[in-house]
Specification:
By secondary structure, the chain is α/β, with parallel strands linked by helices. The protein is 52% helix and 10% strand.
C-alpha cells in the first residue's frame, strides 16, 4: 500500500479543470456528475470504458474518473490503455470510483492502473479530497503511475450525498433521478428472474451484485440486504423474492 501523501493545495482551482468520468449506471452518473460540477469541474460523462478511451484519444483532461465494473470495457482495462496514450492524458491522474473496491481487492489487480481509489457512495468532501489526492500523488511522482491509495468512505455518507442533491435539484429533476434509479433496479431484478429460469446461478449472482451497487449508491438498505442474500448460491431466486424485491423498490421510490 502506498504511504499517504500530505495534501497540498492544488496550483489552480477546480474551476475550469476538465474531468472525464465513466459510469455505466445512468442514475449514479447523474449523481456524481452533479457533485463534480458543484466542485467547479467541467465534466464529460460517458457510459463505459471504451467510450472513455475514445474521449481520451481526442481531448485532454486534468483528471480521469472511472468506475471499475462496466460493460464493453471495464475500468481497469480502460485505465491501462489510457495510460499508454501519448501526450497529456497518458500522464493525467486516474481515479477509481466503485462500490466494490474492498470486495475485489484480492480478486482483481486494479491497483497498478489508478492513482487513488474511492469506494461509492462518496459525498462531496470525499470526492473533492480524492481528486486533490490523485493530483497531488501524480505531481509528487513526476507524472509516473503509482499503486493506488484506497481512500476510506462510509455507506452512511450516501445519506448526505442524496440529501444535498435533493436540495440542489429542482423537484422534477429529483423525481426523474429516482425514477431512473428505480428503473435500473427493476431491470436488474428482471435479469435475475430470467437467469433463474434458465438455471444460471452465476448470472443471478452477477445481476444481484449490480443491484447491490445501485442500492448502496442510493442508500436503499432493504434492497441492499435482499441483493446481498441473492449473491449466495444457497439462496434461490423464487417468485416470492421477485415480488418482495419489486415491493421494496416501490417503497424506496415512494419515500
Amino acid at each position: 500500500m502506498l504511504a499517504a501523501v500530505k495534501h497540498r493545495p492544488n496550483e489552480k482551482p477546480a474551476k475550469g479543470r476538465r474531468v472525464l468520468y465513466a459510469e455505466d449506471s445512468p442514475a449514479a452518473r447523474i449523481v456524481t456528475t452533479a457533485l463534480l460540477e458543484k466542485l467547479g469541474y467541467q465534466v464529460d460523462a460517458v457510459e463505459d470504458g471504451e467510450a472513455a478511451l475514445s474521449h481520451a484519444r481526442s481531448a485532454s483532461y486534468d483528471v480521469i474518473l472511472l468506475d471499475i465494473e462496466m460493460p464493453v470495457m471495464d475500468g481497469v482495462t480502460a485505465a491501462r490503455r489510457i495510460r499508454a496514450l501519448p501526450g497529456s492524458n497518458g500522464e493525467a491522474p486516474i481515479l477509481a470510483l466503485s462500490a466494490f473496491l474492498a470486495d475485489s481487492t484480492e480478486a482483481t489487480h486494479w491497483r497498478d492502473a489508478f492513482d487513488c481509489a474511492l469506494p461509492k457512495p462518496a459525498n462531496r468532501n470525499e470526492l473533492e479530497n480524492a481528486l486533490n489526492r490523485a493530483l497531488d500523488l501524480r505531481a509528487a511522482h513526476h507524472g509516473r503511475p503509482v499503486d493506488a491509495l484506497l481512500l476510506p468512505s462510509g455507506a452512511a455518507d450516501g445519506v448526505a450525498v442524496l440529501a444535498g442533491l435533493r436540495e440542489a435539484l429542482p423537484q422534477g429533476s429529483w423525481t426523474r433521478l429516482l425514477a431512473t434509479a428505480a428503473g435500473e433496479m427493476r431491470h436488474a431484478v428482471m435479469v435475475m428472474a430470467a437467469c433463474a429460469e434458465a438455471g444460471d446461478g452465476e448470472c443471478v449472482a452477477r445481476a444481484a451484485h449490480s443491484l447491490e451497487g445501485l442500492a448502496r449508491t442510493f442508500v436503499a438498505e432493504e434492497i441492499f440486504g435482499l441483493a446481498r442474500e441473492l449473491q449466495s448460491a444457497e439462496t434461490a431466486f423464487t417468485p416470492l423474492r421477485l415480488a418482495t424485491l419489486f415491493a421494496a423498490i416501490d417503497r424506496w421510490q415512494g419515500q
